[in-house]
Design brief:
The chain is mostly beta strands. It is 4% helix and 43% strand. The strands form ten sheets. A five-stranded mixed β-sheet has the order 1-3-8-5-6, with no helix packed on it. 24% of the residues are buried.
């Protein structure tokens, strides 16, 4: 195949694939025109649907060749309309025409040519920017615009194909500009206070959901125009957006000034663990002049930052502090564990009494590692985790072990890496 043939085929391929039919090539998928917006469109590769009553079975001041379709709906008052065609760029293939045809019309039955009624002027030879104009469109009515390429004159063998810009304006489609405002309970709050913002929209029919942002990051979507949060930091900016109008929706948005969030240092100290019957010092700190601990009945002095705590069970202590009218809270958990007790004897003789070597308090260390050795240093038992189901019952790999002294190593595998060693007397 000759190179020029390959190039021609490639150009044809690109033409038909990059400039394929637009969705608005058909009346039933006509492009919705929004007022005062610019649409870039084309009738390149468009065709026509021609049969009795079909969408292209009309004769205005022209007949269809390669039609594309647009639609719009007038507002509640109707009136004048102007549809502007601009930036016309025609295809320039040999034998191809270079003029557009256009008509505005109403349709009693959508996309049924037998029901069309032409409205306003008709353009049959638009080679430069032009307009469709009508002085009195009906209110709340759907209208259509059909655009086709001209195909007349000596030597013309192909209908015009053109890319162009399209816009619609006038009293019949004008609508109020929607706005949205935000009101807040306060612009200065305390840390962790609930902040409330309420949106008010005007000239905004068919309001959609409200999308809320904090510092530009989406945080919530609500059906009602109210937003609440207790997670704001100092300088936070709240914004909201919603859509107005079902057809040709418009997005409206607004922002609050920066929110002042007052805070101060407050720390209830690290969590602690100790055995039943012991006590510890709480290690609170704050810059606030007023503070207290709760519950009060487990601390030596609730108005001291470092009181002695003596809970009888695991307890959450709350340190509350107030400064400049703001009250904050922080929490510390004091965990009470049973003291570890390692029995020195047990009697696994199946009398249901002391039949296992039971370590008191070991359940608080589920990852502990327990090993038992005989007097020659041979391991006879091991377990990761130790409970009644995993406890040593005086047996080894070969069955019941003889009476005597055995030795244990218990690694708690806790943050302090505690390890306990000792001996056990097994009595039968």
């Amino acid at each position: 195949m000759k190179p020029w043939v390959v190039i021609l085929l490639l150009m044809q391929f690109l033409h038909h694939n990059l400039l394929a039919q637009q969705s608005y090539n058909n009346c039933n998928s006509a492009l919705e025109l929004c007022p005062n917006q610019l649409f870039s469109v084309t009738n390149i590769d468009a065709n026509k649907t021609f049969c009795p009553g079909c969408e292209d079975d009309f004769t205005f001041c022209f007949t269809s060749n390669n039609s594309i379709w647009f639609t719009f709906t007038t507002n509640a008052t109707g009136g004048a309309i102007q549809v502007d065609f601009s930036n016309l760029v025609f295809e320039t293939n040999p034998g191809q025409d270079n003029a557009l045809q256009a008509q505005l019309f109403s349709a009693a039955v959508p996309c049924n040519a037998a029901s069309y009624t032409a409205v306003g002027n008709c353009v049959s030879n638009g080679t430069a920017p032009f307009s469709l104009i009508s002085a009195a469109l009906l209110p709340s009515t759907t209208y259509y615009i059909v655009v086709s390429g001209d195909m007349t004159g000596a030597g013309i063998t192909a209908a015009a194909e053109c890319s162009f810009d399209l816009s619609i304006s006038g009293a019949a489609v004008d609508r109020p500009v929607p706005t949205i405002t935000l009101t807040t309970g306060a612009t200065s709050i305390c840390l962790n206070d609930i902040f409330t913002a309420n949106a008010t929209v005007t000239d905004c029919p068919d309001t959609g959901n409200y999308t809320w942002f904090v510092n530009g990051i989406e945080v919530a979507t609500t059906t009602l125009p109210t937003f609440q949060t207790s997670s704001l930091q100092d300088g936070a900016i709240i914004s909201v957006e919603t859509s107005c109008y079902l057809l040709c929706a418009e997005i409206v948005t607004t922002v609050t000034p920066a929110i002042s969030v007052y805070s101060f240092p407050l720390d209830a100290g690290p969590d602690q663990t100790f055995a039943t019957g012991s006590s510890t010092s709480l290690l609170g700190s704050t810059s606030a002049p007023v503070y207290s601990w709760s519950p009060t009945f487990y601390v030596s002095n609730p108005n001291s930052l470092t009181p002695i705590a003596f809970p009888e069970e695991t307890t959450v202590f709350t340190l509350s502090a107030t400064e400049n009218g703001c009250t904050l809270e922080d929490y510390v958990i004091i965990t009470i564990t049973e003291e570890l007790v390692f029995p020195t004897t047990f009697s696994p003789n199946d009398d249901q009494v002391n039949d296992i070597w039971e370590i008191t308090g070991v359940s608080n260390y589920p990852n502990c590692f327990v090993r038992i050795f005989d007097r020659w240093g041979q391991e006879v038992f091991q377990s990761t985790g130790y409970s009644e189901q995993k406890a040593w019952d005086g047996t080894g790999k070969a069955g019941k072990l003889a009476e005597g002294v055995y030795f244990y190593i218990v690694e708690l595998r806790d943050p302090d890496k505690q390890e306990f060693k000792g001996s056990i007397s097994l009595i039968r």
